[in-house]
Design brief:
alpha/beta; 2 domains; seven-stranded parallel sheet; 15 helices; 17 strands; globular
Length: 385
């Protein structure tokens, strides 16, 4: 079996020859550290992106089979983006910057955390009607001008990418990214502002969600109608933190759930029965909405201090719920014994079926190259191959 066949077999509860060894990418600083240590080249460190040919090269060097987040992205964001603009430079060197989404951030050269947001271009009906809504209209170029991984190179969809995807001969897993139905709105408006908007102007809140949902639907529909073949459908949200969701679960179910349902029914008609969502944090309160609306694979199952695991979810939702993730990435900063203990913890979860272990987010700079290699070797020894 190849990696593509193995992954789909696991997630569909079918026989497989061995478990695929999967990751979820790296921090840029991690790759630069590994380049300084001589494990990869500086060019590899700087050219890496999820699912691109360099990703495949680094994966092989470490011992991974592939990055699960290997997908074809349609353009579900605003077009055009805003031009990046430095608005102010403070005496300490920090900068107020308007980014590509119109968000004003405070940037610091030595910062490794998410920059503070201090203002947003999208904040009311006027800015929505005159600035954002016109930038969220469907055009076919949102699909045809996007890059496709064609083995060891990236090719535009309309310059060979579509032809390759129609052939359906690849040996690696490759999904269709169907967009973000709420997380991207939070990115435009800000977490607190989005919550206030739902109460202060519910009509505008609904319209933004419906506009985003329609764009994601049309992009997904165009990609599938082209004849391109994909292995799974995928969404991104990142709308939870350590204590739970950043949106009222009832609001999420009522407002966002129908948008999910419309898109998952579409991808199901084209034979995509694995539909995953990338959401960090304590996601338990949102899982019912995802499951009820056709999203059946949780990713990356961030373990966190709340000890997330597929086991209690499987007990509650049954075999319809699958998972990719749930391996505590901080283990890579420790030692071989910690890696062995983590693999032992994963054994009963793998036995549940429909589950592929994967580091629970991007590997941070404290990850030791030799520990990651050891993990990949031990996973093969433990789960076949």
């Amino acid at each position: 079996m190849n990696d593509r066949q193995r992954a789909l077999a696991v997630l569909n509860y079918q026989p497989y020859d061995r478990l695929p060894i999967v990751h979820f990418g790296f921090w840029d600083d991690t790759l630069l550290k590994w380049a300084r240590e001589g494990h990869i080249t500086e060019e590899e460190a700087r050219s890496w992106a999820d699912g691109n040919p360099t990703d495949a090269v680094i994966s092989r060097k470490l011992g991974f089979d592939f990055n699960y987040y290997s997908v074809f992205h349609t353009h579900n964001d605003i077009i055009p983006f805003f031009e990046r603009q430095v608005l102010e430079v403070a005496p300490d060197g920090s900068r107020k910057v308007r980014n590509h989404r119109g968000v004003v951030l405070v940037e610091k050269d030595d910062a490794t955390s998410i920059p503070a947001e201090i203002d947003h271009t999208l904040k009311d009906r006027q800015s929505w009607d005159t600035i954002f809504r016109p930038r969220l209209q469907f055009t076919i170029e949102r699909v045809t001008k996007m890059p496709v991984r064609v083995n060891d190179r990236m090719v535009s969809f309309d310059e060979g990418g579509l032809e390759f995807l129609r052939q359906d001969t690849r040996d690696y897993l490759y999904g269709l990214h169907c967009g973000s139905l709420y997380g991207i709105i939070r990115d435009w408006i800000g977490m607190e502002n989005t919550i206030y908007l739902a109460a202060d102007d519910p009509a505008l809140f609904d319209e933004i969600i419906e506009t985003v949902g329609e764009l994601c639907y049309q992009n997904t529909k165009a990609a599938l109608e082209s004849g391109a073949k994909f292995d799974f459908a995928h969404f991104w949200e990142d709308i939870c933190f350590r204590s739970g969701p950043l949106i009222n679960p009832r609001v999420f179910k009522e407002k966002v759930g129908p948008q999910y349902r419309r898109i998952t029914e579409l991808v199901n008609r084209y034979g995509l029965n694995i539909v995953s969502v990338d959401c960090d944090g304590l996601i338990d309160a949102l899982i019912p909405t995802w499951i009820e609306n056709g999203v059946n694979t949780m990713f990356p199952i961030e373990v966190g201090t709340w000890n997330a695991s597929i086991a209690p979810w499987r007990e509650r939702y049954g075999r319809e719920l699958r998972g990719v993730g749930g391996m505590r990435k901080y283990t890579f900063a420790l030692d071989y014994a910690a890696v062995d203990a983590e693999i032992e913890r994963l054994k009963p979860l793998v036995e549940l079926g429909g589950y592929i272990p994967c580091p629970d987010h991007r590997l941070a700079p404290d990850a030791k190259w030799e520990n990651v290699q050891y993990y990949c070797d031990r996973m093969r020894q433990t789960f076949g191959g």
